[in-house]
Task: inverse folding
């Protein structure tokens, strides 16, 4: 359902100038009934000037008359050809001021753990600009030394479902392009929940890299017996027969 322009200001005008119920005003303006009640009590939208929907060609006076006569009646917004498609206009995601300082950390996390995502996808997820993403990719951001990667879902910049949808879309694009992916890349292309359920792959410590064929086990018993020296040769004991002849 389309909403009137300046919904809260319109609700203020309807509260002050009509006897419509809170629910009727909320349904017409796209607000919750309790929010409309808060406007009437002065707790919400304090200082907002009323916006006349009749004078601004958004509502017919007959609709208000019908609504006041029947509390169950739903007001109908006046058709305005100029407003067609306004709800579908695409623009950057709005990020609250309190969370805007967290966007570089979220961008670094996405660039590091999901390099398959395009700049456009990252921009939609965290509400940033492509030049900012590029500076973090190239590590030329002015504060890159102090930025730590943090999951944007944990920061509240996007939903888990939105992140999973973007990752899966990138996976389909790579599959359609026929690009070969390594195991690590394939793991990154699945959703976060799926990757957490995967079994961890055994990895060789970097300290013994290059010694994969080295075994700590000993040789076979037969080879070991052939190579072990006898006690006499090991201790270099003198010949006992010669000693006995000398004593005689």
Result:
């Amino acid at each position: 359902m389309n909403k009137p322009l300046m919904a809260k200001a319109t609700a203020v005008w309807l509260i002050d100038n009509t006897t419509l119920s809170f629910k009727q005003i909320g349904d017409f303006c796209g607000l919750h009934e309790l929010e409309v009640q808060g406007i009437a009590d002065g707790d919400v939208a304090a200082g907002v000037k009323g916006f006349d929907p009749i004078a601004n060609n958004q509502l017919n006076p007959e609709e208000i008359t019908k609504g006041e006569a029947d509390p169950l009646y739903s007001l109908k917004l006046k058709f305005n050809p100029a407003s067609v498609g306004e709800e579908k206009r695409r623009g950057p995601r709005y990020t609250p001021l309190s969370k805007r300082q967290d966007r570089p950390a979220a961008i670094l996390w996405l660039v590091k753990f999901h390099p398959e995502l395009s700049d456009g996808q990252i921009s939609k997820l965290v509400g940033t600009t492509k030049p900012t993403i590029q500076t973090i990719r190239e590590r030329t951001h002015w504060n890159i030394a102090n930025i730590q990667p943090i999951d944007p879902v944990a920061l509240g910049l996007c939903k888990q479902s939105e992140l999973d949808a973007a990752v899966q879309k990138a996976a389909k694009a790579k599959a359609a392009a026929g690009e070969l992916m390594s195991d690590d890349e394939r793991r990154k292309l699945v959703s976060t929940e799926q990757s957490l359920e995967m079994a961890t792959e055994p990895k060789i410590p970097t300290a013994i890299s290059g010694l994969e064929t080295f075994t700590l086990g000993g040789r076979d018993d037969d080879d070991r017996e052939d190579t072990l020296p006898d006690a006499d040769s090991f201790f270099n004991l003198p010949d006992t027969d010669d000693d006995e002849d000398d004593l005689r």
